[in-house]
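Hi R.,

Here's the chain you asked about this morning:
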Amino acid sequence: MATKVSIIGAGRVGTALGVALSRKGYEIATASRSFSSAQNLAQSAGGQAYQELSQAALKGDIIFITTPDSQIASVARGLVEEGGIKRGVVLFHVSGDHSSEILSPCKEAGAYIGSLHPLQSFADREEAANNFPGSFFALEGDTEAVSCGEKIVSALEGRLLRITPEVKALYHAGACAASNYLVTVVDLGVQLFKAAGIQEGFGLEALLPLIHGTIRNLERVGLPHALTGPISRGDVSTVKEHLEAMVKYSPELIDLYSELGKHTIGIGLAKGTIGPEEEIEIKKALENV
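And the predicted structure, written out as tokens:
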């Protein structure tokens, strides 16, 4: 008999998770703030949509709360108040920031609680379900929930990251820096291209092959050896030329460029391609614009 999973929240993450689990033989029930979204998920996953969150929750041996982070606590309390928590059910949320402790009302009602965060981007719900294989999942919670989460990660062909509740926010900060701030750094490059007179809309297209090459270097040689460029080779004069040009054409971008440069110095030192003298000179150039 198929394991029954209830998905509470039919946005991008909930839809991706529901579809991916249905492909692995799990039986899906779902409810969401928007019933039409729940119906769409149910149709995609071959499951059943319900009007009430508690109705859907009662159908599952495993419950996932996949709402926005700001709604997790209120949804958990609501499930308890409406009798939606069966004793012995395993309940996860998928937030990267919050620990399983946010689900404590459900634990008091007899659930085993945990957090299971897929370390993946969910920009497109249609494609997101295909991104689970090979992805890492951060898992923590009650012993029973952790055991269940390990089986789910295995079924989704993922890889496991065991963490503790007290460092959950730090883990999430690292994920945001690597994913969200990558977009920010690329935007910095695009803005500098624009200031250099490169045709609007062409900057990203021009930079993407370079970005892909850098990612391949990270995959091939890792950190810190994937670092290239003027700071990596101790080229202080080039860094100064960058800054002089930015003072003239794009002064609003200097602070971000300089702060990124300061952090890059440490990577260059770790790579062993610059020494203390270059560190001092590059830092001086970045701080005295």
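The beta strands are 4-8, 27-31, 48-49, 62-65, 90-93, 112-118, 136-141, 159-162.

Let me know if you need anything else.
M.
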